[in-house]
Amino acid sequence: MRRVCVFAGSSLGGRPDYAAAARDLGRTLGARGVGLVYGGGCIGLMGVLADSVLAASGEVIGVIPRMLATKEVAHQGLADLRIVASMHERKAVMAELADGFIALPGGFGTLEELFEMITWAQLGLHVKAVGLLDVGGYFGALLALIERAVAEGFIVAENRELLVVASEGGLLLDRMRAYAPPRGLRRWIGPEET
Questions:
Q1: Among 68, 161, 162, 174, whose CB has the most other CB atoms within 10 angstroms?
Q2: Contact, 49 vs 21, CB < 8 A?
Q3: Beta strands of the chain (E only): which ranges?
C-alpha cells in the first residue's frame, strides 16, 4: 500500500482518545512510508492526523472543495493541496490517489465517505481494503447495525468482510495489507460475461 485515504472528523470529538489515535495513526503511516490522502483540512481529527504524518516526514496530499478552502479550513502547511470544485470530485480524486481507505471517528461526512467506499467495493468498482479504526468502541453501534442488516437480509453475509476492523492503527494497516476481497463476492456492476 503506497497511500491510504483517511476519512476523519472535522471536530476533535468528546474524548482525548480520538486525537491520540489520529496522532498514532499518523506516526505509523510516516514510519511505514505510507502516504496520506485526506480531506485537506487543518481542523479536528483531520488536522491532527495530517500534522502527525508531516511530523514523521511522511507524504500528505490534501483534497478540499473550493467552498471549504475559502472558509480558511484548508491546511496551509501541505506541499500538495488540491482544490477541487465539489464534494463529489473530492471523493473521486481521493479514491483515485489511494490504495485503501480508513475511517477514524467522525460525523455524517465521515460516515457517508466510509459507506460510499464500501458500496463501491460491493459494486465491484474497486477492490481496495476499507478499514474502520474503532477507537474506544466508537463504532460499536454501527458494527451492530451492520450485523442487524445481515440478519435481516439487507447485506449479503459475505459482504460484511468488505470492512476491515481494528482498534489500533498498526494492526489495522497490517490487516488491510493482508486483505483480499471476500470469496463469493457477487459483483453487482462490472464487465459483462462473454
A1: 162
A2: no
A3: 3-7, 35-38, 60-65, 80-84, 100-103, 129-133, 163-166
Cell readout for 180 is: 483480499
Burial of 168 (0-12, 13-18, 19+ CB in 10 A): middle
pTM passes above 0.90 = yes
Compute and round to an integer the Cα radius of gyration of the chain: 16
Q: What would the pLDDT profile of 46-87 be if each residue is shown by its tens digit?
A: 999 999 999 999 999 999 999 888 776 899 999 999 999 999
How far is it, in rounded angstroms, from Cα 47 to Cα 37? 12
Residue from 116, 98, 88 nearest 38 by CA: 98
* pLDDT tens profile 158-170: 999 999 999 999 9
